[in-house]
Amino acid sequence: MAVWWALSFVCFAVAIMLIAREAAPGQAIAIASVVLVTQAAYANLRLGQVAWPLLLLVTGAWVADRATKPVWCGVLLGAAASWKPFLLVFVPYLM
Q1: Band of the pLDDT at 88, cuts 50, 70, 90?
Q2: pLDDT tier at 4 (50, 70, 90 boundaries)?
Q3: Distance between CA atoms of 40 and 68, rounded to whole angstroms?
Q4: What is the largest CA-CA distance in the chain?
Q5: Which of 1, 46, 48, 60 is the most buried (most CB within 10 A)?
Q6: For 46-54, which contacts have Cβ atoms below 8 Å and span 24 or more sequence positions?
Q7: Global pTM?
């Protein structure tokens, strides 16, 4: 469980850094604080959920889409959708 938590925190930190770099430079700590005070963050930690690795995949797809790299966006979003099928709602957007 400790290894999973460590991996999740690394994914969380990388995703927050990507979000801050793209949308709010210099605000990584504020973004992380807002996310960490939510009930969803607590449940993610308490129950060992897959939200933060999934957050990294979806954030990577978002960054790739902003950089007009459709292949990387599709690969990352496809990996995320294979993990959680509800993300297939983004397929029409990518088409």
Answers
A1: confident
A2: confident
A3: 31
A4: 39
A5: 60
A6: 48/1, 48/4, 48/5, 50/83, 50/84, 51/8, 52/8, 52/9, 52/11, 52/12, 52/15, 53/7, 53/8, 53/11, 54/80, 54/83, 54/84
A7: 0.84
